[in-house]
Design goal:
Blueprint lengths: L4 E5 L3 H11 L4 E5 L11 E4 L1 H9 L3 H5 L7 E6 L5 E6 L1 H8 L4 E4 H13 L4 E4 L9 H8 L5 E4 L17 E14 L12 E6 L2 E8 L4 E9 L9 E2 L2 H10 L5 H8 L5 E8 L10 E3 L2 H4 L8 H18 L2 H30 L3 H12 L3 H6 L2 H4 L6
Length: 387
C-alpha cells in the first residue's frame, strides 16, 4: 500500500527537495528542522544539468534561474603561472548537450527557493525549532499531530536519524580542510574570471572560484590537507588556521596569495565522508544525501546527489511498500555514488599532482579539445533520474 505521510528530518536541500518530490505524487510530508529559522549556511554551489533537470520538473527552476548565473565554461588553470590548462564549455552548450542548464548560486538561495515552494505546497508542513534526538515514527507523529508512515533522514553528515538504521554508515575525516569565503566583485582581483567556473590547480591543493549573482560576488573554496578540530562547516577560522591555509598554497601565484592573505573571515570546513553502510532499516527509516553517502567535493556533486536521491526515492515509494522501495533505492543509487566517489578521488589526484605527473597531466589535457572533455561528463550531467 502506498504511503500517505512521510516524516523528513532536516530542512536543507535534501529534505526540502524530498518534500516537493513526494508532494508531486500526492504524498504528505512533515519536515522537522532543529533551527529556529532557515538562515544562510555555507557559500556557493554548482547546480549541474542532472540536478537542474529535476528542479525544473519540481517547478522551481524558473525562480532559481532568475537569480543564478550560467557560466560559459569550467576552466582548469595553473596556480603558479595562471596559464589555462583545459576547459569544458557550459552555457548554451550545456543545454544542447545535456538537455538542461548549468548554474551557480549561493547555497542559501537554492534553499530559499525550495523553502518558498514547500511553504506554498499544501502537502508539506514545516516544523522549525525541533531538535529531534529520537527519530522513531511514534515520537515524530506526536509532534506532527498525525500518523507518519516512514522516516527519511536528510539531516547531513552528523545525522540523528542514522541511529535508527543498524549498520548505517559512519563519518570519517578525509584529511582535507576547505576554506570558504566570498569576495565582492567590485574588490576582486583581476585574475578571477567573471563568466566561468575556474579551478586553480597546485601541488597538494587547489582553489575553485565562480561568480554568484545574488550579491555580486565570487564564491571561493580553497582545499588543502589539514587536521580537524570541529564538525561545523561554518566555523570562522582563527589566525593559526589561516596560517596553515597559506602554507598549503606556498609557491602559488602572488596574486592568489595576496587574495588569501586578506581573508580574515574565511570559514574553516573539515571535510568528512561516509564509510560504507546500510541506508535503511528494512522497515520504516531511510537515509538520503550526506546522511547516507557524504563524499568529497572534488566532483562538485554533493548537492546534486541529494537532489537525485530525493527525486528517485519519491518515485519508488509511489508503487511499492516502503521496505521494498528502500531496498530498491539503495541498490539503484549505490553504484552511481560509488562511481562518483571514484571520479572525485581521481580529480583530487589530478588537481593536486606534483612534478612529472603534473607536467604529464597538463600535456594530456592540453591535447584534448573541450568537446572531448565534455564527453567525459555525459554520465554525470546527462543522467536522467527516475521519478
Amino acid at each position: 500500500m502506498p504511503i500517505k505521510t512521510a516524516a523528513i528530518i532536516g530542512a536543507g536541500i535534501a529534505g526540502l527537495t524530498t518534500a516537493l518530490a513526494l508532494a508531486r505524487h500526492g504524498i504528505r510530508s512533515e519536515i522537522f528542522e532543529q533551527a529556529e529559522a532557515l538562515t544562510e549556511v555555507g557559500a556557493g554551489l554548482q547546480i549541474s544539468p542532472n540536478a537542474s533537470r529535476i528542479l525544473d520538473t519540481l517547478g522551481v527552476l524558473d525562480t532559481l534561474r532568475a537569480v543564478w548565473l550560467e557560466p560559459e565554461e569550467v576552466r582548469l588553470v595553473s596556480a603558479s603561472s595562471l596559464r589555462p590548462v583545459a576547459s569544458v564549455p557550459c552555457g548554451n552548450f550545456a543545454r544542447e548537450r545535456w538537455g538542461a542548464p548549468y548554474g551557480t548560486a549561493h547555497r542559501a538561495t537554492l534553499q530559499k527557493v525550495l523553502l518558498e515552494a514547500v511553504i506554498a505546497n499544501a502537502f508539506c508542513t514545516l516544523h522549525l525549532g525541533q531538535r529531534i534526538e529520537i527519530t522513531d515514527r511514534q515520537t515524530l507523529a506526536g509532534i506532527a499531530g498525525r500518523d507518519v508512515d516512514i522516516v527519511i533522514g536528510a539531516d547531513g553528515v552528523w545525522s540523528k536519524a542514522r541511529a535508527m538504521v543498524p549498520a548505517s554508515p559512519s563519518p570519517v575525516f578525509s584529511g582535507n580542510i576547505a576554506w570558504r569565503f566570498t569576495i565582492a566583485e567590485a574588490s576582486a582581483p583581476a585574475i578571477l574570471n567573471r563568466t566561468s567556473v575556474t579551478a586553480f590547480l597546485g601541488p597538494a591543493s587547489h582553489l575553485v572560484c565562480y561568480p554568484i549573482r545574488e550579491n555580486a560576488a565570487f564564491n571561493i573554496v580553497a582545499i588543502v590537507s589539514g587536521s580537524s578540530s570541529s564538525r561545523d562547516w561554518s566555523t570562522a577560522s582563527n589566525k593559526a588556521q589561516r596560517e596553515q591555509m597559506l602554507r598549503g598554497f606556498s609557491g602559488w601565484n602572488s596574486a592568489i596569495i595576496q587574495m588569501l592573505e586578506k581573508q580574515e573571515q574565511a570559514s574553516f570546513w573539515p571535510l568528512y565522508e561516509m564509510k560504507a553502510g546500510r541506508w535503511h532499516n528494512g522497515s520504516d527509516t531511510v537515509l538520503i544525501g550526506d546522511a547516507a553517502h557524504a563524499m568529497m567535493p572534488f566532483a562538485a556533486q554533493g548537492a546534486a546527489m541529494a537532489i537525485e536521491d530525493a527525486f528517485e526515492l519519491a518515485g519508488m515509494l509511489v508503487t511499492r511498500p516502503p521496505a521494498e522501495a528502500f531496498d530498491l533505492f539503495e541498490k539503484h543509487r549505490t553504484p552511481r555514488i560509488a562511481r562518483l566517489r571514484q571520479r572525485a578521488a581521481f580529480n583530487q589526484f589530478a588537481y593536486h599532482a606534483r612534478g612529472p605527473i603534473r607536467v604529464a597531466r597538463d600535456l594530456v589535457l592540453s591535447l584534448r579539445p573541450p568537446q572531448s572533455l565534455a564527453a567525459d561528463m555525459d554520465w554525470i550531467y546527462g543522467y536522467r533520474a527516475i521519478g
